[in-house]
Amino acid sequence: MNRDPExxxxxxxxxxxxxxxxxxxxxxxxxxxxxxGRAVQDAEAGTVPKARMPYTLGRIASALGWPEGxxxxxxxxxAPPGEGWRDVPAQADVEERYESIxxxxxxxxxEGTPAAEIKKATxxxxxxxxxxxxx
Length: 135
What we know:
Layout: H1 5-21, H2 26-33, H3 37-45, H4 55-63, H5 70-75, H6 91-109, H7 115-131
Helix pairs in contact: 1-3, 2-3, 2-4, 6-7
């Protein structure tokens, strides 16, 4: 079994993208797959399993319309089946959006404060998000 954390994270993103593309909640997909919403949440988390391949992965993939063997193929680097999925580095986009939101909020809240001070406060807030693992 593939133990590469990046491969499992990529599989989790692909499963979530496929679910989102179909407009399903985790609970709805779990019901379609004959498993739980928690199993879908775990699969989308992309955590490397401790022992063996979770049996629920095949059910979830099948409920999304993925052919047999697609989970293993994605773990080995193949593109996920279907439309609506793309593997993009989202971290930079998320950080940029957080920075923009924080800066705009501080500008509104701290009227008259110099831009340099607002940027400094934004950086402190972003560093704290990173320290707590939120970014």
